[in-house]
Amino acid sequence: MKSMSNTKDMTMKQWLHNKKRRSYSVILLIFIGLCVTVAVSLIGILIGFILYRGLGHISWEFLTTARSALRGTIGILPNILYTFYLIITTLLIVLPIGIGAAIYLNEYATNRRLVRIIEFTTETLAGIPSIIYGLVGFLLFAQGLGLRVSILAGALTLSILSLPTIVRTTQEALRTVPLSYREGAFALGATKWYMIRTIILPSSIDGIITGVILAIGRMVGESAALLFTAGTGYALVTNYFQALGTSGGTLSVALFVYATEHGNFNVSFAIASILVIIVLLLNFSVKLVKRKLRKVK
């Protein structure tokens, strides 16, 4: 009888314990759901407000003309071109350096202490405010190297700013490749560089592309660093090589100029809408690229 009562007591305690755990789980799920709802609602309200204020002011003339006081036009075609010039130039500089550094750190470096120091340094650089990059870029590239305030000086500054993102995302992508791939390649007599070029990089390409697109998203929205280095020019220059030595304001810089110097918030919201659409398209493109690469694999 005593053992039966002890068994019943244990069963009751276990039941109460399970019930308490279920109650905690339900409360936690409700709290998490509320947090997600608040976060998504705030983002949705922000994006919706920007599109509501800006889409009505976007027109074909707005997208295909330049700002001119003589003709009385307000266009952002030069700003769109300068944005693409800046992104292309920055990627041409930062991709070989960033991906090469990540390959070295992950595949070649043997001094793990040095690797940890470099990784800590890149993480620290990623947290530095962009305005500091702009100040350093202005002193180093615009004045020190004599590039003046130009697209090339802005691209070099953005290269330093984007380098930590490219290096860290590429490293994480390389680490996702199983060790057995490397061992199998070496067992078949492949050299290290051949193994990296034909096995490691193709297997991690989706993660590398994701990091590149994230870096492009930051370039598109950057303004503080470019105010010091790329400038606020709005002259229409269609020649890419000529534009490298020209002062040119990107879309984010143009938004800042129209909002602060001209007080034209309608144009500012129109540019903000375009930036939001570009960022959304970049995020969707990341998902599409990942799906296609998974199908290829």
Model description:
This protein has helices at residues 2-54, 60-64, 77-108, 112-126, 130-144, 151-175, 179-187, 192-203, 205-221, 224-229, 240-243, 251-260, 265-296, and strands spanning 66-68, 73-76. A hairpin with a 4-residue loop joins strand 1 and strand 2. It is globular, with a radius of gyration of 26 Å. Strands 1-2 form a two-stranded antiparallel sheet. With 297 residues, the chain is mainly α. Helix 1 crosses helix 13 and helix 6 (151-175) runs antiparallel to helix 9 (205-221). It is built from 13 helices and 2 strands, in the order H-H-E-E-H-H-H-H-H-H-H-H-H-H-H.
CATH T-level topology of the largest domain? MetI-like fold
Q: Give the CA-based shape.
A: globular
Total helical segments: 13
Helix content: over 70%
Précis, in short:
This protein is mainly α and 297 residues long.
Would you spell out the secondary-structure blueprint of this structure?
Blueprint: H1 2-54, H2 60-64, E1 66-68, E2 73-76, H3 77-108, H4 112-126, H5 130-144, H6 151-175, H7 179-187, H8 192-203, H9 205-221, H10 224-229, H11 240-243, H12 251-260, H13 265-296
Antiparallel strand pairs: 1-2
Helix pairs in contact: 1-13, 3-6, 3-9, 4-6, 5-6, 6-9, 7-8, 9-13, 12-13
